[in-house]
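Late entry, evening session. Most of the bench is empty. Finally got around to the prediction I had been postponing all week. Sequence below, unchanged from the version circulated by S.P.
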Amino acid sequence: MKPDDIDLINSASEIRKNARAPYSHFKVGAALLAADGRVFTGVNVESSSYGLTICAERIALGKALSEGADKFSKIAIVVDSKKLVPPCGACRQLLYDYAPELEVIISNGKGQSKKYKLIELFPEPFGMSFL
């Protein structure tokens, strides 16, 4: 049985505890659902050289791809904030490259969540058609 939205939010929320955010203290958890039902999680990992920081969404996607998953239906992203926080631009690009039809669920861990299609968050993406 594939996980539902609440299961994905719970997975992202739980893994978020493992985030490494010693500089911003802004911990993020992500749970990516593959078409075959597997869930791949990730957390943000910060570096003192901020440009080397890796987002939770990209870690989840990297784990999934490295384990052979190649089709994805949705991702849940959880942060602990008052506002709902969408993925950054770099994450939107990489998610689009591998899952252009992805559903994105953002949650603040306080019972608030919202769903988007990735294309709503990234309306004019750069993709393979330009290469």
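Two things to note before I forget:
The mean pLDDT is 95.
The chain has one domain: 5-130.
Will write this up properly tomorrow.
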